[in-house]
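<context>
A single protein, sequence plus fold
<sample>
Here is the protein in question:
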Amino acid sequence: VWAVSTISKAHGDEAPEPFPDLFGYCSTCGPPQPASPDPLVRYTWEAGMNMSQLQVYRINRPNEFLVDPRNSISGVESLSKNTSGHLHLQIHTSGSLRLDWGTERAAWFEFESPDLGNILDTTNITVGAAISEFNTPYPGKTRQVTKYGDCTFRLETNEELYEGVRYTWLYFDMPATSKVLWHITQISLVAKVKPI
């Protein structure tokens, strides 16, 4: 079971969203479907809702994750779906983080870091991301992340933002001599949905 977040991002509207967060719904009005991979399977929307207006929801914890090399990130236990605390990843060295979100969604990938913006502006550290429906990055869908405001970073693979996404990756390239540490405090797969 995936936890659906309708809570606003920690840093407000730094990155423009093309659709509003979920609204006008009942999350328990539909019949239980315990075998469904759809986190919104029990959701219903109010009568009179504009069914053509898309909405978004966030998944903030992946089903599984893989860090390579293992010592490149600390705090990975905070990624666990069984964790209710805040996310706090600390990036130490070059490496990658693969996130399996469990099922494919029409979505995009973004994260928040309180210190990465200044680091990217003043060092030769680079951060990229990738997406795919499969467990290897899809050709042409690996890019540098786009910074919004002070803290929000988003992978933008097309003008509409969304793609079919089950897996996401973060890649960080840091010089071997770098003593710079940086943090990730929120990570999201932002999925769009049509009210029905």
About this structure: The radius of gyration is 17 Å.
